[in-house]
Amino acid sequence: MASVVQWIQGTRPRTLPNSIAPVVVGAAAAHHIDEFNVLYTVLALVVSVAFQVGVNYANDYSDGIRGTDDNRVGPFRLTGSGAAEPAKVRLAAFISLGVGALAGVALVALSGHWWLLGFGAVCIAGAWFYTGGKRPYGYAGLGEIAVFLFFGPAAVLGTLYVQTGEITGIGIGASIAMGAISAAVLVANNLRDIPTDAVTGKRTLAVVLGDKDTRRLYLALVAVPFLIALGMTVRVPYALLGFLAAPVLLPAVRRVAAGRGGRDLIPVLQFTGIAMLAWAVLVSVGLVLD
């Protein structure tokens, strides 16, 4: 029987900045045009984090029952390790997605943008079919595209839109930045798992590209937020604060560029996630100061 600590590990805490950072910067983009709403922001944060936890448990369950995690190098998995029954992990995924759905319905009801219910349904389907179902898109090299869309434009612009009823240029730029660095987290994860994924038939983008090109992709993706911050300075000079996140990212960049593999790549996820959150907070401060 899995312990509480193991269930917490199953949420994959290192990936949670993916769901927090986009809401932070989306709310700041709303504040930038004087439309910030605390309650809407909190609800958006609950939706984002709950969906993130849900997809992590769903991934744990689906990869576990397929045998993908039987010989993994990465962090602990509930199903693959045998610590928890697959049905319980699947239930945890459903509960998490359900919490996110309830918060989403409340947000839609308060904001009056009812068409967003369909958008939420797409997000839930995307969470489950990433590694679930007969033809998971995560096994077909489409995971990074989905992560870019869901944790970039969807999360940032969704947070902005429910508060303002509009999409701004600053919001679009921030959404691209968040989508790129969120995708970089997955690229780093899949880079580490190339040997085992190739054996089990999980054709991630990293498996398709190979080790060297996957490292190049990671380095390109993590550069995007800083290019976006530089572009933002045309309208928001304080966006340069985003560059203060660079030192946080540097250890991850060094490990990837140096060709490190296996367990040496595990910290890359954490460093990249923290850098993402730092960039979001720092640029948000710049938007508020502006």
TrEMBL record:
Q: Does the keyword Membrane apply?
A: yes
Catalytic reaction list: an all-trans-polyprenyl diphosphate + 1,4-dihydroxy-2-naphthoate + H(+) = a 2-demethylmenaquinol + CO2 + diphosphate
* Residues that span the membrane, as ranges: 38-58, 91-108, 114-130, 137-161, 167-188, 217-234, 269-289
Record InterPro entries: MenA (IPR004657), UbiA_prenyltransferase (IPR000537), UbiA_sf (IPR044878), UBIAD1 (IPR026046)
Molecular function (GO) terms for this protein are:
1,4-dihydroxy-2-naphthoate polyprenyltransferase activity
A Pfam family that the UniProt record links to this protein:
UbiA
Documented EC number(s): 2.5.1.74
Pathways involved: Quinol/quinone metabolism; menaquinone biosynthesis; menaquinol from 1,4-dihydroxy-2-naphthoate: step 1/2
Keywords of this entry:
Cell membrane, Membrane, Menaquinone biosynthesis, Transferase, Transmembrane, Transmembrane helix
The membrane-topology field of this record reads: Multi-pass membrane protein
Q: Where does this polypeptide localize?
A: Cell membrane; Membrane
- Biological function: Conversion of 1,4-dihydroxy-2-naphthoate (DHNA) to demethylmenaquinone (DMK).
> Which family would the database say this protein is a member of?
Belongs to the MenA family. Type 1 subfamily.
* Listed name of the protein: 1,4-dihydroxy-2-naphthoate octaprenyltransferase
Naturally occurring in which organism (per UniProt)? Lentzea sokolovensis
